[in-house]
Design a protein that fits this description.
The chain has 369 residues and is α+β, with helices and mostly antiparallel strands. The chain is built from 9 helices and 17 strands. The longest helix is centred in the N-terminal third of the chain and has 20 residues. Bound molecules: fructose -6-phosphate and magnesium ion.
């Protein structure tokens, strides 16, 4: 309805210090974040909030009526992460300097280190949302599930059973190398979409809207990831937000895409490939070889801007087999040791000693006759 207030759900993510190493978050950091956001809610700066964590990354969920890219909301998230970082420094937690690439706030979280996903909508009669967050992986982690949820009727029967979804969905895709973006429609341009989205380290699906009315349905946190001159300047801690039901995929259709623990980039030293394991909140502690990569899912009803929840969506035995498969795939992948494709290609590795190795060996290389 025109004139009805729009609610914005802003989800900010950052890595401001790990406990122990890169495994988890110390409870003091979560308390610090909650105190800050509680104060902001009391002052009326936000309607509601929730603090989550996956592995060593913190996630701040905030609802408000200021729209996306609001300076005050971004600054609140920035100051909250800064306060968490100070608590981490005090406890000498691990790599507290990592998540914030600037010292002072410059007006937006964009290019500052943290990730931010924001979705603005007029609340429907009932507004079920899912917020997923992953750890030990990279921005392209959502490409495969987003494709399956919004373009594959074998995952989402609603695409052919719900008249409101028959026209399909459009995908905004970022080209991380060229610093460009493109929007492709499904089903018409499905092959082009797959041609791009399958290259997960270069082309990242950043948001999805419904074709019939351009209503936004999903957005990922790297949409405003730190792309400067076509290069990612800091790691994003990946999150994705979904609105569900009534012309959008059902909660169960979104969840179904995670029953297959697909292979993702960014495990150990940001340089390995492994399966994405869906876990309940209390199991989001990647300890084996810093992994395997994890994903959590928090379900909420947004009611007058309030976040009613969370429900811990992967706390369900129907995901036991996905977890078991992920463990089996972990054993299999680990047996490759430093060999590709467990180790990522040279160009995609976050850490590499290769230039030093090549320099040490340069005089021993002989031309092939
Ligand atoms: C991967 C990750 C960890 C670290 C690894 C080495 O995303 O965060 O696997 O890369 O534990 O950590 P540093 O370089 O801090 O010794
Ligand atoms: Mg991290």
């Amino acid at each position: 309805m025109p004139g009805e207030p729009k609610v914005t759900l802003s989800v900010a993510t950052a890595d401001v210090g790990g406990f122990v190493g890169h495994v988890s978050i110390h409870p003091e950091l979560l308390d610090t974040a909650k105190e800050r956001l509680y104060g902001a809610r009391e002052k009326g700066a936000i309607i509601d909030f929730h603090v989550l964590r996956c592995g060593d990354d913190i996630e701040l969920l905030m609802t408000h009526e200021n729209g996306p890219d609001d300076r005050e909301v971004h600054e609140l998230a920035w100051n909250t992460f800064k306060a968490c970082q100070e608590a981490a420094v005090e406890l000498k937690l691990y790599a507290a300097e990592k998540g914030m690439v600037r010292d002072v706030f410059t007006g937006s979280l964009r290019r500052m280190g943290p990730g931010i996903a924001e979705i603005e909508f007029i609340e429907r009669k009932s507004e079920p949302v899912l917020v997923l967050m992953a750890n030990k992986t990279s921005v392209g982690v959502w490409n495969l599930p987003l494709y399956r949820i919004f373009a594959d009727p074998f995952n989402t029967p609603g695409l052919i059973l719900d008249p409101a979804m028959l026209d399909g969905f459009s995908f905004r895709i970022l080209d991380l190398k060229e610093g460009k973006e493109i929007t492709l429609r499904s089903p018409e341009e499905m092959h082009y979409l797959l041609a791009l989205a399958g290259s997960v380290s270069r082309y990242v699906i950043s948001s999805v809207h419904r074709n019939s009315d351009r209503e936004p349905v999903a957005v990922i946190s790297s949409q405003k990831c730190n792309i400067v001159g076509g290069k990612i300047t800091a790691r994003c801690e990946p999150a994705v937000v979904f609105r569900c039901h009534v012309g959008f995929p059902a909660v169960g259709e979104v969840m179904e895409a995670f029953a297959f623990p697909h292979l993702v980039e960014g495990w150990m030293r940001g340089s390995h490939i492994g399966p994405l394991m869906p876990v309940p909140f209390y199991e989001a502690n990647p300890t084996r070889f810093d992994g395997p990569p994890r994903v959590i899912a928090a379900g909420f009803q947004v009611t007058d801007g309030r976040l009613i929840g969370p429900h811990d969506m992967f706390d369900d035995p129907s995901f036991d087999e996905a977890r078991r498969t992920a463990n089996q795939v972990t054993d299999y992948m680990r047996r490759h040791g430093p060999f590709q494709p467990h180790r990522m290609p040279q160009s995609e590795m976050e850490y590499t000693a290769m230039p030093i190795v090549l320099d040490k060996l340069k005089d021993k290389f002989k031309k092939i006759e």
